[in-house]
Write a structure and sequence with these properties.
Layout: E1 2-3, E2 16-19, E3 22-26, E4 35-39, E5 48-50, E6 58-61, H1 75-85, H2 110-116, E7 122-125, H3 133-147, E8 153-157, H4 159-173, E9 178-180, H5 185-191, E10 204-208, H6 209-212, H7 215-224, E11 228-232, H8 247-261, E12 267-271, H9 280-288, H10 302-309, E13 312-313, H11 317-320, E14 333-341, H12 345-363, H13 368-387, H14 389-396, H15 408-418, H16 456-471, H17 479-493, E15 498-501, H18 505-519, E16 529-533, H19 539-550, E17 563-567, E18 583-586, H20 593-600, E19 612-620, H21 624-644, H22 654-667, H23 686-706, H24 717-730, H25 733-746, E20 752-753, E21 759-761, H26 768-778, E22 786-789, E23 799-800, H27 806-820, E24 834-839, E25 846-860, E26 866-880, E27 887-888, H28 891-896, E28 902-904, H29 908-951, E29 960-963, E30 968-977
Parallel strand pairs: 7-12, 7-13, 8-10, 8-11, 9-10, 11-12, 14-19, 15-17, 15-18, 16-17, 18-19, 22-23, 24-30
Antiparallel strand pairs: 1-6, 2-3, 2-6, 3-4, 4-5, 20-21, 21-22, 24-28, 25-26, 25-29, 25-30, 26-27
Helix pairs in contact: 1-25, 1-27, 3-4, 12-13, 13-14, 13-15, 14-16, 14-18, 21-22, 21-23, 22-23, 25-27, 26-27
Length: 987
């Protein structure tokens, strides 16, 4: 570098300065009194503030290469790719793409385009489970923060998903958010100065929705909340006014969101895969948070649908599958099947006894309240017995929650929340406790009641049923468990890694215990790792247990390939398990089809490396409870989904239909259904018929309305060209793969190809600085050798060959840093800044220059102002002939030189002299041409921003790109024709 003195300068964004013994780039937010600087070639973590009044700051220019710093034919490509991978201030119209560690698919940019159309962003993102709602919300957040349209961010979510959200924000978007949970608030308050809030408008936070809605914290949060809010699983924050399940909690959540939405300039992103629970009022209230008109406008009118299209985006898997034809990991299909078993005679006898007990107790109830209490307690017993002997025993020894109800309606609310799986219930994470079935006998009918309120005869009967259930444990009499063992074994032998979903904690632990025993009998050739994860564990403990099952052990050995995760529905939402599992078994049928979709969505999602995932539903062929759930709900849901291509939520008539069918089973049938031809073969109950009609009608309405939503009005093709251009400027996927492999090979990483694609590399022999960066990215116990995947995603401890992967970025940074610093040992400098290459790719001497341009980018803001930002771009230019009379080549011919192969060597002295003559010409005519190229690049940059902003209907006034200083010449490479007769080294 060279420096020049100047008095009291005012430095423009993108200009170079010398301070503290090194060169820096001036960043936005700098003033005359405070310069915000990033080291030239450094990362964002190295940004510093410098006070010109107290420290010496002078203008700087980028030093040209040293003529003697010569490399071979690969040098130019390595240097160029390292430079482009290292860009964190890309020039393109999507400002965040250069600094995020995710390569968005084209469809994921559609919500971003919708957001750019709005002055204050208000969106409901309702894409299917597993296709990237988190990434879509993160892209919008990163772009708003990068453009300066948002100062801070808060994510409201379930505490079980808080750590995952923080990891996603940090790992993929470079946003370091603080966790605000009951377990962290004490520490955060101690770290906060007295009298100040934990929250700052310019901070980033992941917050438990239920924690922050409490009166103690709510008002402080509302006063200091950042201006960008993401609400995960937003459907849990609304309930209709007649809701019987979790209404109070949902109303408190809704009140919090309503207060946040009432701030007119606050950005609000609502995220959910199930925006419509089958009830219109909650859906309208959710939409009303975005725009008050959406709460009442008729969607039957064109104007109403067009209004909705501005705020609502929803895509199904079929809509986006074409975006995954490039080898990205997304399952091509889901192999679903039902697996039946027949009850053991002892199990069948106990079920008949429970049905008889249910019929007797409900019919003999004294009054409406007692009847509803007994109804729900006996239904709980039926459902737990259908789940497992362990759950039935637990239920028979636990008081029923409906016992505390004072009215029939209250009994129904409690029963629905603890026994059923209603669509508008809270998150499943706290719903896996076994519901009790014990109820005290009414005092008027008991002469001598026991302390637990049960008369001696009824207590003896319940004790006998509990003992009978206990004797059913194990695969001998529990044929459901026996069938599971066979099913899991088949999946494991086929190379699958299944998750077994259960309804209750007791069932999950029971299943896991028996699977461990049966699958790991003495002498077994391939042992199987099994773990149970339930709501009994805290969110952190759940993640730790999964990590113990799927991650490396304390010795660094990889996880066993044959593994089974048994879990309750505490893992059915939000937690991503696609890297470690690829099959789902529904051990217990959910009484809501949406729950099955959520379970399967844990493995059937972007990042799944198995092409076809498995989804198996276990059911008892002669179990009347399973018969009802399958025929009333699950099979109808699947039939409608296959016929329409839409997964339609259960209509609100579902609960009443289920009630009617169970009443038919319990109250009106004197013999169990497994002794009949079937409950449904003879007749279809009116309630079930009404449910089916309502469901099909809802499916047709939703199918008809989808064509009018915004995702079909904003075509991803509108931005595809801009995205392709940005990706090319930052390094294509093939370039990144080739660069990483070549660089690691030069740095003694010994890469070796894998049959599955990609390669492995040994990191222990890498230079110390790069080795430390790899350890920081992958962890000290990462597998060795490191696996590099030829894909946009990779499992934990491994590397995805994308420019934003931390290991790839660290490799590029190391290659660039050592190329610019000749003090490093020669073997640690795989890229050099100069070269003279003999090649058959040219017929006359041709010079190639690797050039970096910096621009001051002025972007119109939503409030009518203009914001200044830094942008960088790398270009390759080339000319024929002497440097004092250059004949400039088209861009495509210049880029083709990067592929030229050397056919001979050049004498070092000869090469040094030629490079010196080219460098001398930089101060004359060559730099004039490069300045002209900077102006042309600025015009192209403006045009690109203009096109995207026009497509997004964003403001254009004030948009301008201005070159800052002379372009930096990073590399000079002379290509000479191959000699036809080899007379000497440089003949």
């Amino acid at each position: 570098m060279t420096t020049a003195a100047a008095s009291a300068p005012k430095y423009a964004v993108g200009s170079l300065v010398h301070a503290r013994g090194r060169e820096w780039v001036v960043l936005p937010d700098s003033t005359e009194d405070l310069l915000v600087l990033r080291p030239l070639g450094g990362a964002d973590v190295d940004i510093a503030g410098v006070l010109p009044g107290l420290e010496t700051v002078v203008p700087a220019t980028f030093a040209p290469p040293t003529p003697g710093d010569l490399g071979d034919q690969h040098t130019a490509g390595l240097l160029r790719t390292a430079l482009r991978i290292g860009f964190r201030a890309g020039a393109g119209p999507f400002r965040s793409l250069a600094s995020i560690a995710v390569d968005p698919r084209p469809y994921q940019l559609v919500p971003l385009m919708m957001a750019l159309r709005q002055d204050t962003v208000r969106l409901l993102i309702a894409d299917d489970v597993g296709i990237g709602k988190t990434v879509e919300a993160g892209l919008i957040a990163a772009e708003l923060l990068a453009q300066g349209d948002a100062r801070g961010l808060v994510v409201l979510c379930s505490p079980a998903l808080a750590e995952q959200w923080r990891a996603e924000l940090r790992g993929k978007f470079g946003i370091d958010a603080r966790l605000v949970l009951p377990a962290t608030i004490g520490r955060l308050e101690r770290e906060t100065p007295y009298g100040q809030s934990v929250f700052r408008p310019d901070g980033a936070y992941v917050v438990s929705t239920d924690f922050i809605k409490s009166p103690r914290h709510r008002e402080d949060f509302l006063r200091h909340c950042p201006d960008l809010v993401i609400v995960d699983e937003a459907h849990t924050c609304v309930a209709d006014s007649t809701a019987q399940v979790s209404a109070r909690t949902s109303q408190q959540r809704y009140g919090l969101l309503r207060a946040l939405a009432d701030t007119p300039d606050r950005h609000l992103l609502l995220v959910t895969a199930t925006p419509h629970s089958g009830k219109e009022e909650p859906f309208r209230r959710l939409l009303g948070l975005l725009d008050a008109r959406l709460a009442t406008v008729s969607f039957e009118s064109r104007a109403g649908r067009e209004l909705l299209a501005q705020f609502f985006v929803q895509r199904r898997r079929a809509d986006i599958r074409e975006d995954f034809q490039d080898g990205a990991h997304f399952p091509s299909g889901r192999d679903s099947a039902e697996v039946s078993y027949t009850l053991h005679r002892d199990y069948r006898a106990l079920l008949a006894e429970v049905l008889a007990y249910a019929r007797e107790t409900v019919r003999s109830a004294d009054g409406a309240l007692q009847q509803r209490q007994r109804w729900w307690s006996t239904l709980a017993l039926l459902r737990t017995l259908s789940s497992s002997p362990a759950a039935a025993v637990r239920s028979l020894n636990t008081r029923a929650g409906v016992q505390e109800a004072d009215t029939p309606d209250e009994a129904d609310r409690t029963g629905q929340s603890t026994v059923s799986d209603p669509a508008d219930t809270d998150s499943a994470e706290s719903a896996d406790e076994v519901p009790g079935s014990l109820l005290p006998t009414a005092a008027s009918t008991v002469e001598e009641a026991a302390p637990d309120g049960l008369d001696a005869e009824e207590k003896a009967r319940l004790v006998a049923m509990a003992e009978a259930a206990g004797r059913l444990a194990g695969p001998t009499r529990d044929t459901k468990l026996k069938k599971l063992v066979a099913t899991v074994t088949d999946l494991l032998d086929s190379g699958y890694r299944p998750i077994v979903f259960c309804r209750y904690i007791a069932t999950s632990d029971y299943v896991a215990e028996h699977l461990k025993k049966v699958l790991n009998k003495r002498g077994v050739e391939h042992p199987v790792a099994v773990a149970s994860v339930t709501g009994e564990l805290s969110p952190d403990m759940r993640l730790n247990r999964i990590a113990e099952l799927t991650g490396t052990d304390e010795n660094g050995d990889p996880a066993p390939e044959r593994r089974v995760l048994v879990a309750t529905d505490c893992l059915s939402e939000g937690v991503n398990l696609q890297e470690s599992f690829d099959a789902v078994i529904h051990y217990d049928l959910a009484w809501n089809p949406t729950r099955h979709e959520q379970r399967e969505g844990r493995v059937d999602r972007f990042g799944q490396r198995t092409d076809t995932v498995k989804a198996l539903t276990l059911y008892g062929a002669d179990n009347p409870v399973d018969d009802i759930v399958l025929k009333v709900l699950l099979r109808k849901h699947e039939r409608i989904r296959r016929a329409t291509g839409i997964s339609v939520p259960v209509p609100q008539q579902a609960e009443s239909a289920m009630q009617a069918v169970f009443e038919q089973l319990i109250l009106n049938v004197e013999t169990p259904s497994f002794e009949q031809e079937g409950l449904f073969e003879r007749e279809q109950l009116p309630a079930a018929e009404q449910l089916e009609l309502a469901w099909e009608s809802s499916a047709e309405r939703e199918k008809a309305s989808r064509s009018l939503y915004a995702q079909n009005r904003i075509k991803k093709e509108d931005v595809a060209a801009e995205v392709a251009e940005i990706r090319a400027a930052l390094g294509t996927g093939e370039e990144v793969r080739e660069f990483t492999r070549r660089a690691l090979g030069a740095l003694r990483g010994a890469p070796a190809d894998r049959k599955q694609g990609g390669f492995t590399a040994h990191t222990d022999a890498l230079p110390q600085g790069l080795r430390d960066a790899v350890t920081a990215a992958l962890g000290p116990r990462h597998p060795r050798p490191v696996v590099f995947h030829d894909a946009p995603s990779a499992p934990r401890g491994e590397v995805a060959l994308t420019r934003t992967d931390p290991v790839v970025a660290a490799t590029a940074r190391f290659v660039l840093d050592t190329a610019l610093d000749e003090k490093f040992p020669a073997w640690q400098r795989p890229a050099r800044r100069c070269g003279v290459i003999r090649t058959s790719a040219v017929r006359r001497p041709t010079t190639m220059l690797l050039v970096r341009h910096r621009f001051q980018l002025s972007l119109p803001t939503r409030d009518g102002g203009v914001r200044t930002q830094l942008a960088e771009d790398a270009r390759v230019v080339a000319f024929h002939g002497r440097p004092d009379a250059p004949q400039w080549l088209p861009d495509e011919e210049a880029l083709a030189l990067l592929e030229a192969r050397a056919t001979g060597n050049s004498d070092p002295g000869f090469a040094t002299d030629h490079i010196a003559s080219i460098l001398a010409a930089l101060d004359t005519g060559l730099m004039d041409e490069l300045r002209l190229r900077s102006k042309e690049a600025a015009k192209e940059l403006e045009a690109s921003h203009h096109r995207v902003r026009t497509a997004a209907r964003a403001r254009l006034a004030g948009l301008k790109a201005t070159p800052q200083g002379d372009p930096d010449v990073l590399g000079v490479f002379l290509y000479r024709p191959a000699a036809t007769i080899q007379l000497g080294a440089d003949a």
